[in-house]
Amino acid sequence: MNYMITIYTVFFLATTLISFFVAFFAWQRKSVKGAKELTLLMIAAGIWTFGVMFETAATTIQGKAFWSGIEYIGGVSTPVLYLIFVLRFTNKEKFMTPKYILLLFIIPLITLILAITNEKHHLIWAGFSSISEKTNIMEYYHGIGFWIGNIAYNYFLFLLATIYLFSFIFKQVKIFQMQGLLVLIAGLCPWIASIFYLSGINIVPGLNITPANMILTGSLFAFAIFYTHILDLVPVAHKVLVDTLPYGILVLDNKNRIQDINGVAISFLGIHNKNIIGFSAESSGASSTELLKAALDRESIDQITIQSNVELKIFSILKYSIKNPQGSRLVVIHNITELKLAEQEIKHKNDELQKLNTEKDKFFTIIAHDLKSPFNTILGFSDLLVDRVKEKKYDDVEEYAEIIQLSSKKAMDLLINLMEWAQSQTRRMEFHPEYFELIELIKDTELLLSGALKQKSISIVEHFPSNTPVFADKKIISTVLRNLISNAIKYTHPSGEIIISTKETQGELIISVSDNGVGIPKANIDKLFKIDQSYSTLGTNNEKGTGLGLTLCKEFVEKHGGKIWIDSEVDKGSTFYFTIPHHSTHKK
Fold this sequence. Notes:
alpha+beta, Rhopdopsin 7-helix transmembrane proteins, Beta-Lactamase, Helix Hairpins, 4 domains, five-stranded antiparallel β-sheet, 17 helices, disordered C terminus
């Protein structure tokens, strides 16, 4: 492989030496925060310019392509290491876990592999120009891999670093603002150079001046090290830290003596003497001894609950080691009471939502199952009825028609309950309470269900001491009565009786509906009004319930501020009770 020493070769040799020079001095301060990251950054920049140096000296296309691949080792690493250095410098430690760092290097690693294997796919360099006889430099025609893996990703990293630096600069005092500006300008240099290279307005065609600008970046970092002591000073906004943060800040040495403390920590710990710097924390007179004990413990505490005579408070306590003086630590006390209460409220709401969703799922399962039965009956006996009519055989027609009629009524009851429940759950049901005579509404409901009563020869016995007006939504109470009386008809033996009575008490009216039917085991009574729990039994003529009626009754009664309950005994019957207030006490 032949080489030709040019002015560009010498220039990139200088940039390489400066990069390694800065890396060496940064490593001399490796115990200082950020020094190791700066060292790696400048080593990567040195590898980059080292490759460019030989690439400018190579005299063949193959030689130049080979050294361009070497350049990519430092070229793809430098932007990532610059972002990592910025994260360390601006105290964004939480993003510097091995997991995040590994993720940052995935795209650069893929780009490097594509560069090394470019001859097989040409994704990085689609082609090359001839080598200039004057400059010994050739131009690269870039492929899609270069634009995505190199340019787009590197500019994205630089944008992140710039955002963090601007945020840091605006929050710091003057000396640290200068540090931040130097780091920002140092990073801008190679990126501005890359814009000139990509735009094609280079003074020397094909010369990538981006790595050349690392000499300026290295110089600015060196200036920051020697002049502003970038690695010797730790950016701390002390006034903000001590006076205005909503966290309790406590600095302790290895003997638990208070080195610094802010007003919030004094308040949390219940310390009355503010002149306690240098004194032992145990002798500070803190009234919250439990919180002080947790603060003095060496381990961080995610959550500690402090119960006083006045209120309950919840704190989290974080501990950070401080190297100077050795054994010291920073204690951060955070009052998370509101946060935890909010989390509990959210959990409660989520539990309620989950319960509601469970009820809805159960409801739709019930409806789908219960609707299937009457519709199958209707369809099946309709087919039979059509066949009998076609054959002019009318002996079973009346029986089939009655079955179809009963199944249709069952389906209609289901659909009515479904629509009313859906309106209630979506809060679209209009609620118009008014004064009306309840006994008249009961009689209207009896008339509506007279066909079912006659079919089983059931009589209704009424006990209405007085015709008392109630304040309620007439339509909604009608739904309650319709479902309760329909249930009583199902579970009353043929030729039996249903007793409907009203009783006036102070402030409300009690309505009861009794049957002499199959009754309900006591263990299953609580399940009757819940969608998420199922209990059903056939009526005295094997009738099935709607699966939703009692749930609607409970919801509609409670909407009026009333309550509903049941007394039942197996094989003797059941009595349903519900109340309606005389006055407006409904729930919206």
